[in-house]
Design brief:
Arc Repressor Mutant, subunit A; 68% helix; 9% strand
Length: 151
């Protein structure tokens, strides 16, 4: 590959990942619409299905969303009966988020989402797991390098 080939769109990993992410989001949309969820709301539920309860700060870190984005979304989800927010009794600065029964009830209905991705991918479970591990490793390296270079 010559030096200018690195600037071709087809050779940009960032574009490939971006386009893949958009394709997955398009595939998820009908399922999420049926559940009455946006993709970021689905991510919040995924985190709460694992932990049942989390602080807003922990959710922000897990989902890589700033509190200015997360807080209004959590308020809408609370209004929809999917979760409950409450100030911590130990530290009133901390807002805890707990999944509500209505949010738990969506878990079974959401099982079709990752199954559809798996079926649509044309990849084996092992291939998908390896790809995810590689992307996570790359993301960690990039984040570590960014933090090191931007204190």
């Amino acid at each position: 590959m010559n030096e200018h080939d690195y600037l071709k769109l087809d050779n940009q990993l960032c574009f490939t990942l971006y386009a893949c992410s958009r394709a997955i989001s398009r595939m998820y949309r009908p399922f999420l619409d049926e559940l009455g969820l946006t993709y970021p709301q689905y991510l919040v539920l995924l985190a709460l299905w694992e932990q049942q309860e989390s602080s807003v700060k922990q959710l922000s870190e897990i989902l890589d969303l700033d509190s200015g984005t997360l807080t209004p979304m959590l308020k809408r989800m609370e209004a929809a009966g999917l979760l409950q927010r409450q100030r911590s009794s130990k530290d009133e600065r901390v807002v805890m988020v707990r999944i509500a029964q209505k949010g738990l009830d969506l878990r079974e209905q959401a099982l079709c989402i990752p199954k559809t991705l798996f079926q649509s991918s044309g990849m084996t479970v092992e291939q998908l797991e390896a790809l995810q591990a590689q992307v996570k490793q790359m993301m960690g390296s990039i984040n570590d390098g960014y933090i090191k270079n931007n204190p």
